[in-house]
Structures are given as structure tokens and as C-alpha cells.
Amino acid sequence: MAIDDALRVEITDADVRAAKNEWLAARDGVDADRDVERALWYYKRLNSTPP
């Protein structure tokens, strides 16, 4: 069976990561990128406050 080069698709690591994040968001009902940004904001805020 001949492979048609016009139908060939290149799948990159970024595509796989994006698909995984979309799947996790759909499964959990949460946006994974938003959770990471929120955690980073809390981390920076915690470290910027004096003891």
C-alpha cells in the first residue's frame, strides 16, 4: 500500500502536550495552565512577604 505524502501529518511534542492538557481539562473540568499560573502567583506572593 502506497503512502500518500499529502496526507502525512507531523505531530510535535507541543501537539502532544496540548492534547494532554485539553484532555485533563475536560476530565477534571479545570484549565491546567490556569492552575499553574495561580500556584506560581501564590508562591511569589508567599516568598515576597516578610517573615
Q: Fraction of residues in helices?
A: 55-70%
Sequence of secondary-structure elements? HH
Count of β-strands: 0
Low-confidence runs: none
Q: Number of helix segments?
A: 2
> Which class do the helix and strand fractions yield?
mainly alpha
Average pLDDT, all residues: 80
Overall domain count:
1
Oligomer: single chain
Question: What are the SSEs and their pairings?
Answer:
Blueprint lengths: L12 H16 L3 H17 L3
Concise account of the structure shown:
The chain has 51 residues and is mainly alpha-helical. It has helices at 13-28, 32-48. The N and C termini lie far apart (69 Å).
List keywords for this structure.
single chain, 51 residues, mainly alpha
Could you characterize what this model shows?
It is a single chain. This protein has 51 residues and is mainly α. It has one domain (13-48). 65% of the residues lie in helices and 0% in strands. It has two helices and no strands. It has helices at residues 13-28, 32-48. The longest helix is centred in the C-terminal third of the chain and has 17 residues, at 32-48. The radius of gyration is 19 Å and the shape is elongated.
